[in-house]
Amino acid sequence: MPAAALALVLAAAVLHSTWNALAKRSRHQLCFLWWSTTAATVLFAPLTVPMAVATGLPRAAWPYVAATIVIHGMYFYALGRAYRSGDFSVVYPVARGLGVALVPMLALAFFDERPSPLGAIGIALIVVGIVGLHLAGRAWAGAAAALRQLGPGTWWAMATGLATAAYSLVDKAGVARLHPVPYIAFMFLGMSLVLLPVVLTDTSALRREWTSNWRAILVAAVMTLSAYLLVLFAFQLSKAAYVVATREVSIVLSAVIGSLWFKEGALPPRLAGAAVVLAGVACVALAR
Questions:
Q1: Range of the domain at 49
Q2: Which of 50, 73, 122, 262 has the most CB atoms within 10 Å of its CB?
């Protein structure tokens, strides 16, 4: 994986885990996510609008922009539901980890991207570490017992992971047809419009979220768009499977945040799982 792509993805991971933590601590997670997406669209308009006007929306990019808008709408809806009913240190690893597991298989099918042996080992280690993080502090009582322990937050996290895998592949193809800056401008604007009817079903919650959390919303807005731009540029430099896998170093941060900030459980078992994730990231970073 090129050093430039690695640096972009690691920076995106820090931003991503941080804005997710801000969303988790909000009063109404979906309203918070909608406000931050909408604020990001407005704050970055001076950068994104001129480029979007200059480049336009090439016909070849239309299907990918439309698809990513719809998929991201589903992603943010599922993420909001997951954080509303699940622990941060469980939801985040499951949501991010499922994408890691699915993207290499789908990238092989759609882009004929074949990870090297070291890259494949790294991806496998990341998935194993994610499973360890999810089961940290729980009894290893077998698959049936593990399934019975899954609450609605985990199921919504799985739905979020499916959406993550889907939009990662769509965006990999999309930025090959349109520059990342106008691409994300169209995506964020469309996503805000798609989710608008959903959040307007509870206008009082929408108003309360802005009134009580507007500072955190603005911080999350900057982090959300910045993190996603970094990933889109990384897609132009490296394989989709490697970018998505390396991005999951944010899971290490989520383990620390969940344990220390949200008081969700002991830190050592989560750090053990995080160490496996880091080993996998190191393999992916060294792969060619």
A1: 3-286
A2: 122
Query: Average pLDDT for residues 120-141, to the nearest whole number?
Result: 69
Q: How far apart are CA 72 and CA 76, in angstroms?
A: 6
Query: What confidence tens digit (pLDDT) does each residue in 223-265 have?
Result: 998 898 898 888 888 887 778 777 778 888 888 888 888 887 7
Amino acid at residue number 274: A
Instruction: Tell me the residue type at 213.
Output: N
> Distance of alpha carbon 277 from its chain centroid, rounded?
16
Say what the pTM is: 0.80
- The residue behind tokens 């509870």 is 202
What does the pLDDT look like over 73-102, one tens digit per residue?
Answer: 999 999 999 999 888 887 888 787 777 667
Candidates 33, 35, 42, 107; CA nearest to 74 is 33
Q: What is the DSSP string of 128-141?
A: HHHHHHHHTTS---
DSSP 262: S
Among 257, 180, 186, 217, which Cα is nearest to 8's?
180
CA distance 115 to 123: 9
Question: Are the C-beta atoms of residues 266 and 274 closer than 8 Å to each other?
Answer: no
* Cβ atoms < 10 Å from Cβ of 198: 15
Task: Compute the radius of gyration of the chain from its Cα atoms.
Answer: 18
User: Number of structural domains, the chain?
Assistant: 1
Token pair, residue 31, equals 């309203």
